[in-house]
Automatic annotation (TrEMBL):
<protein>
    <recommendedName>
        <fullName>Nitroimidazol reductase NimA-like FMN-containing flavoprotein (Pyridoxamine 5'-phosphate oxidase superfamily)</fullName>
    </recommendedName>
</protein>
<dbReference type="Pfam" id="PF12900">
    <property type="entry name" value="Pyridox_ox_2"/>
</dbReference>
<dbReference type="InterPro" id="IPR024747">
    <property type="entry name" value="Pyridox_Oxase-rel"/>
</dbReference>
<dbReference type="InterPro" id="IPR012349">
    <property type="entry name" value="Split_barrel_FMN-bd"/>
</dbReference>
Length: 156
């Protein structure tokens, strides 16, 4: 990171993630960059973070990730433009997180249900939910295990 004074501590990263409404998952699709906005849930697993996403069990995104599981996930919890004169003095106040890692697909129904609970909890629903077996069967759950994570802020 070039601007080390903007680097965030782990607790600050967690706060940004809690605040974020969605994130962008970046991956390679046949050697070309691709990115999709997704709702998400996350949890700390030992000293790493894991992110969870739901999607259809077929399609461009999941086929690309099955072929190459390397991915990045980014969130921005705040972005405020600060205009100035001259224009080159304008700036952006922001707080962001970027996680790099590998995608795996959850297949065990109980693990899929727990991941869906994390997603629901992230958006304000409390507790555990019942998911019909046919729905779990036709829903793919992707897990990004972060091998590195950084947070950066230019908020005042």
């Amino acid at each position: 990171m070039r601007r080390m004074e903007r680097q965030l501590e782990f607790q600050q990263i967690l706060e940004i993630l809690k605040d974020a409404s969605f994130g962008d998952l970046a991956f390679l699709d046949h050697g070309r960059p691709a990115v999709v906005p997704l709702s998400f849930g996350f949890q700390q697993e030992e000293k790493r973070l894991a992110f969870f996403f739901h999607c259809a069990p077929e399609g461009r995104k999941i086929e690309a990730l099955r072929a190459n599981p390397a991915a990045s996930f980014s969130v921005v919890s705040r972005a405020d433009v600060v205009l100035a004169e001259p224009a080159c003095r304008s700036t952006m106040h922001y707080a962001s997180v970027i996680a790099d890692g590998e995608i795996s697909e959850l297949t065990v129904p109980a693990e899929k249900a727990a991941a869906l609970d994390l997603i629901m909890n992230h958006y304000g629903a409390a507790g555990h939910f019942d998911y019909p077996a046919p729905m779990l069967e036709r829903t793919a759950i992707l897990k990004l295990t972060a091998s590195s994570i950084t947070g950066k802020s230019n908020c005042r």
